[in-house]
Specification:
Length: 107
């Protein structure tokens, strides 16, 4: 999704008209219209206002990536790796116990 579509999505989620959205961000309807249609690039000032007034991540606006989700996916990946290591360790311990029982003549 491109930047303009993400801006439109934010505005629509807030149920605001372009004029209202522009006023909220210290801008006007024509700027919002040009941004949403891709005829104008977003500037740092507007990105900052989206962040401070609406809590919208500038990173998400520009890239479409959700940093929080990316961090969670990284954590899940790390946990999966730890789980795989734990399973290998458990299997090795089980094998050692079985060998020790065999050597000791315990069934």
């Amino acid at each position: 999704m491109e930047i303009g579509k993400r801006i439109r999505m934010i505005r629509q989620e807030k149920a605001l008209k372009q004029e209202e959205f522009g006023a909220l961000l210290g801008s006007n309807r024509s700027v919002i219209s040009r941004l949403e249609s891709g005829r104008q690039l977003i500037d740092q000032d507007l990105l900052n206002r989206l962040w401070t007034k609406l809590g919208v991540s500038p990173h998400w606006i520009i890239t479409g990536e959700d940093i929080a989700n990316r961090e969670r996916l990284k954590e899940i990946s790390e946990l999966k790796a730890e789980l795989a290591s734990a399973k290998e360790l458990l299997a090795a311990k089980t094998e050692i116990i079985q060998l020790m029982k065999k050597v000791a003549g315990v069934k």
